[in-house]
């Protein structure tokens, strides 16, 4: 491959570079990349024959084109000349090798670099979460092997990490991780089996960390799906997306991880998966701690490679903090969704949006126009069902250890009381986030939101006027829990 790179330079190609990994060679020139699979057979991959290498090139193209069609161009044959140097120039004989031809992008376009440089708005991560939820919903669900994504495989995969971890730099910390994993495996096995029976296992990405995402034209694009081991990509979608939320938190970007999770949950609605989310984050962090911990290099401060993953694991498997429940209260346009989104940045929290869940109850997407579709979703009965659903989801998430903020108007005392009593029953802290803004600001926000058509809310100026009549004052029981927030700027 080095000789091929040299020849490309001699032919006048610019920005020629060669990269070698454990299982591949990459040769780059100008705006193209050729990825050649090494003729290796390892416990986790078999590229030992030309036929297998061609097959896995075709699999890589198929799988990664689902998310990055602009990057993955084609599978190309290679022929070696008399000196053994590969090239794409066709010869009158069968190909000697196969490669995946891809679009080349700048190194600093990788998500890891973009996040580190502070060049990405939180909305971009939220949009990625939405995109991945749509991908998981649309991707193949007919699992080719009943063992893929099974409770037994999940448990064996995580247990297999302990031996190498015990031989690494974090050996003294492993027993605590091991004890936590054992408890969680016992707790989650029935749920894993249930989700497996219900068809949650999908053909996902399999390796969704920051190094496998790139920012192209302002949009985050996942690439490099796992092609060589179907068991690593036929997984529960929570396992897939939790890799990224873990990786962002390990890099110190808890708020961005929350944006990814919020986008994924709002779009897909799989709040039941929250029970497994932290386990999958721990599993992914253990994998990264094991892999990076094997590196001989140390950080600039002398810490062992992978220490940030180990620190994250210590926090997650140590003593857990109590979740809390918060609800918003205020007129449409008063900033409830903004306040609720900011509340997520504390980490370990999820948001429930009445506008989204109301539409979901009626089979509508978050941005669907219910009136245009002839749906009556704002009746008193529909509102009662919506708040009952919000209470059900809130209790479900709280019992799994997640703090919850419920983003709704909560104009009625009885609506607020139901959630205050829920927190009281679960013996958890409760807060009412009271949001208000001047009437002119409310009108401006409503008008802007309706013009953009990018928000689930269907509020109108007329509705805001009616809400002023419907808003019931806080009772003496409620006032100790009220936290005023001004969003009038």
Q: Which properties best describe this structure?
A:
single chain, 489 residues, alpha/beta, Phosphorylase Kinase, domain 1, Aminoglycoside 3'-phosphotransferase, Chain: A, domain 2, Rossmann fold, 3 domains, 6-stranded antiparallel sheet, 5-stranded parallel sheet, globular
What do you see in this structure?
The chain has 489 residues and is an alpha/beta fold. The chain has 3 domains: 2-104, 2-Layer Sandwich (Phosphorylase Kinase, domain 1); 111-317, Alpha-Beta Complex (Aminoglycoside 3'-phosphotransferase, Chain: A, domain 2), CATH 3.90.1200; 325-486, Rossmann fold (3-Layer(aba) Sandwich), CATH 3.40.50. 46% of the residues lie in helices and 16% in strands. The strands form 5 sheets. It has a 6-stranded antiparallel sheet, with helices on both faces. Strands 14-15-13-16-17 form a 5-stranded parallel sheet, with helices on both faces. Strands 4-5 form a two-stranded antiparallel ribbon. A hairpin with a 2-residue loop joins strand 10 and strand 11 (219-222). 38% of the residues are buried. This is Aminoglycoside phosphotransferase domain-containing protein.
Number of domains: 3
Structural class: alpha/beta
Largest sheet: 6 strands, antiparallel
Broad shape: globular
Q: Strands across the major sheet, in which order? A: 1-2-3-8-6-7
Helix content: 40-55%
Mean pLDDT: 93
Task: Tell me the strand percentage band.
Answer: 15-25%
Low-pLDDT windows of residues: none
Radius of gyration: 26 Å
Distance between the termini: 59 Å
CATH architecture of the largest domain: Alpha-Beta Complex
DSSP strand count: 17
Protein name: Aminoglycoside phosphotransferase domain-containing protein
InterPro entries: Cell-binding_unc_protein (IPR052732), Kinase-like_dom_sf (IPR011009), P-loop_NTPase (IPR027417)
């Amino acid at each position: 491959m080095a000789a091929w790179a040299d020849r490309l330079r001699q032919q006048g190609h610019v920005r020629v570079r060669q990269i070698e990994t454990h299982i591949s060679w990459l040769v780059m020139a100008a705006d193209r990349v050729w990825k050649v699979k090494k003729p290796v057979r390892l416990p986790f991959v078999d590229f030992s024959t030309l036929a297998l290498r061609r097959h896995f090139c075709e699999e890589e193209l198929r799988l990664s084109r689902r998310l990055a069609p602009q990057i993955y161009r084609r599978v190309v044959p290679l022929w070696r000349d008399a000196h053994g140097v590969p090239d794409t120039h066709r010869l009158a004989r069968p190909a000697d090798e196969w490669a995946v031809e891809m679009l080349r992008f700048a190194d600093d376009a990788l998500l890891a670099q973009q996040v580190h440089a502070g060049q990405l708005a939180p909305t971009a991560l939220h949009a990625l979460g939405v995109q991945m939820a749509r991908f998981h919903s649309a991707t193949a669900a007919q699992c080719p092997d009943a063992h893929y994504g099974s409770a037994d495989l999940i448990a064996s995969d995580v247990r297999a990490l302990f031996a190498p971890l015990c031989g690494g730099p974090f050996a003294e910390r492993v027993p605590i991780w091991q004890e936590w994993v054992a408890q969680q495996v016992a707790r989650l096995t029935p749920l894993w089996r249930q989700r497996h029976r219900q068809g949650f296992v999908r053909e996902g990405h399999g390796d969704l960390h920051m190094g496998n995402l790139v920012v192209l034209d302002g949009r985050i694009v996942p690439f490099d799906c796992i092609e060589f081991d179907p068991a690593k990509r036929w997984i529960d979608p929570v396992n897939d997306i939790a890799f990224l939320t873990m990786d962002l938190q390990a890099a110190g970007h808890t708020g961005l991880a929350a944006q990814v999770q919020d986008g994924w949950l709002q779009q897909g609605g799989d709040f039941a998966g929250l029970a497994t989310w932290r386990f999958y984050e721990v599993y992914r962090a253990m994998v990264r701690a094991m892999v990076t911990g094997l590196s001989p290099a140390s950080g600039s401060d002398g810490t062992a490679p992978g220490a940030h993953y180990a620190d994250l694991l210590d926090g997650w498997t140590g003593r857990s903090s109590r979740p809390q429940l918060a609800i918003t209260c205020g007129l449409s346009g008063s900033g409830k969704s903004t306040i609720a989104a900011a509340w997520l940045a504390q980490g370990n929290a999820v948001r429930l949006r009445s506008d989204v869940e109301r539409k979901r109850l009626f089979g509508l997407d978050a941005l669907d126009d219910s009136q245009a579709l002839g749906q009556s979703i704002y009746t008193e009965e529909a509102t009662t069902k919506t708040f009952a659903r919000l209470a059900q989801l809130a209790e479900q998430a709280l019992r799994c250890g997640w703090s919850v903020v419920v983003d709704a108007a909560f104009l009625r005392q009885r609506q607020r009381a139901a959630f205050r009593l829920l927190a009281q029953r679960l013996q958890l802290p409760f807060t009412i986030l009271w949001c208000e803004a001047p009437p002119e600001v409310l009108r401006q926000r409503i008008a802007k939101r309706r013009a953009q058509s990018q928000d689930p809310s269907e509020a109108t100026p007329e509705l805001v006027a009616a809400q002023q009549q419907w808003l019931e004052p806080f009772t003496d029981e409620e006032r100790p829990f009220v936290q005023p927030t001004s969003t009038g700027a």
